[in-house]
Amino acid sequence: MSSITISRAPYQLSGRLYTPEAPTTNYSPAIIIVPPSNAVKEQFPSTYARLLSRRPHNFYTVCYDPSNFGASGGNPRYLEDPNARVADVSAVVDYLMKEVRRVDKQKITVVGFCSGGGYAVAAAKKDWRIKAVATVSLVNIGDLFRIGWEGREPVRKHTETMKNVGEERRKELRIMMRPVSSSSSVSGMSITGVTLGNGLPSTPIVDRDARRRSVTPTTFENGLPSTPVVDRDARRKSMTPTTFENLNYRRPSTPTSPGFHKDLYSTPEEEEMGKVIPFLQPTSEKSHVDLQELTEYYTTPRAYHPRAENKLLQQSLPLLLTFDAFDFVETFLKVPVFCMIGGMAGSRWHTDRLDIMLRRGSQSGIRGVDRMVVVEGVGHVDFFDGFEEIDRVVGDIGAWMREKLAKL
């Protein structure tokens, strides 16, 4: 593995390059790992990049921090700009074509996770140097912000959001004209509404089997997502409070977590930038199980990383609300698409919608997603750090990519 810098004028992206463990030819294909929003390369993207570079897959792989987040450049900080995220992918394609001599320039592909899956689709329809796209737990981030996790919220409620965000624009313009230093550490703070034990936030522990039995999967039927039916009593019985003392997570990380401290989003420096809000809002037992697990994954020792700060500049909201990763896919997405989704994932309707759009765009009526894999009994987040789920993704996507690229 090599730490790399990827030119993305006027700044650079921080990334990691993994070389094929046992290349079978002089030139090897490449995979770009597109991370979810709020994720950094040190979390699960590097796991997938490393495994896909090993036998029997032997890809060049790149994972990276997106613009304005993590160790990558870009101001203002914490701005989630979908168009910039799509441009990041093309910048990595540029890097592979210019800087990595043994990459097969005709066999560059992308694999996107969660909202990174939506960005991967959007990049593939714009940048035809990308020859195949795979998604895992796909989320179209525009749809997510417009109509919610389950796809049932009214879009019209966001008219007030757009009005309020406009009032913050003046503050953000001031900070855009000069560099922004990174925020300070916040370890050791008390967290409103959360019990701390040895510096670690408490959160419910979910019995995954009970959780999966209590949730009916979301599907995309007749153009509209159906609403999952959750047995609230069964789920509550499966959850036991804890302070994270003596717990063995599958992906242990840093020993501290900022959680959702109210003062974390109101430092003097960030007030100049405009309002900074949590990327992941605090959850309760009434929240969708996927959202509870996303919060657990990113803000507890399960996978917390200090550069995944759970901060979102409020000025991001208009950009997200007016973005659709699937616009014109029926016309411009010409490469094969692989989708893997958990059978119990509340986000499954994003994958179904993409498949429907691709089918409608084909004169034969049967194009759709080239291969769709639904893993029963698995939720949205399980692909991030579940050993069996990771093995399944790496094996299926690696083999599928090799099959499609062999035909080029």
Verbal overview:
Pfam families: Abhydrolase_6. This is AB hydrolase-1 domain-containing protein. Residues 41-385 form the AB hydrolase-1 domain. It comes from Arthrobotrys musiformis. The protein is 34% helix and 18% strand. With 408 residues, it is an alpha/beta fold. It folds into 2 domains: 2-140 and 324-405, Alpha/Beta hydrolase fold, catalytic domain (Rossmann fold), CATH 3.40.50; 163-319, no CATH class. The chain has an 8-stranded mixed beta sheet with strand order 1-2-4-3-5-6-15-16, with helices on both faces. The chain has a two-stranded antiparallel ribbon with strand order 7-8. Helix 2 packs across helix 3 (115-126). The longest helix has 19 residues, at 387-405.
Write a brief caption for the model.
This protein is of the alpha/beta class and 408 residues long. The protein is 34% helix and 18% strand. It has an eight-stranded mixed sheet with strand order 1-2-4-3-5-6-15-16, sandwiched between helices.
Salient structural properties:
408 residues; alpha/beta; Rossmann fold; 2 domains; two-stranded antiparallel sheet; 15 helices; globular; AB_hydrolase_fold
The CATH architecture category of the largest domain equals: 3-Layer(aba) Sandwich
Structural class: alpha/beta
Give the termini distance in whole angstroms: 28 Å
Strand portion:
15-25%
Superfamily (CATH H level) name of the largest domain: Alpha/Beta hydrolase fold, catalytic domain
Domain AB hydrolase-1: 41-385
Family: Belongs to the polyketide transferase af380 family.
Organism: Arthrobotrys musiformis
InterPro entries: AB_hydrolase_1, AB_hydrolase_fold, Polyketide_trans_af380
